[in-house]
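Please review the protein record below. Let me know how this chain folds according to its tokens.
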Amino acid sequence: LVIRDSMNSALLHPLFLRLLAGWIGLAAAVAAGCSVGGPGAIGGGPVQVVATTSIIADAVRQVGGPHVRVTALMGPGVDPHTYLPSPSDAGALASAHIVFFNGLHLEGKMTQLLEENQAGAARTVAVSRSISPDQLRHADGSDAAHDPHVWFDVRLWMRCVEVVRDELAAIDPD
């Protein structure tokens, strides 16, 4: 279910995206049917967080401390540009209170899936949402695609961490 483009980077086939969306929906339906309130009341324990990459997961852990339980879909060394979501990812997403992702297409075709889940049970947040396009570096020095690796610029990464802080505080002010 993977095709290769001219730059030899993996892209998800649309059929696979539909299947993954179905898995997420099924996992959400099962979770809703097996418990009251989905992933559980936030006041009763840590906020259940899913982060797409290990670097975003690390930022969430630093900000949330003992008040969050973080699952990273991609561990260190995994290339998010070519990552293929698994059925277990659907379960993690279904049990989350909030999902953090890069938002600048770092996660490849998975970004589309996450953006479409904005109305899902878990709040889905692009950590780069507060960065204006004119602040972003360009991948090849031209005016083409933006470089999604915002953590290389401390000022930009600070903006991302502020989004994490604000979103966690909105979900659980305590």
Remarks:
- The radius of gyration is 16 Å.
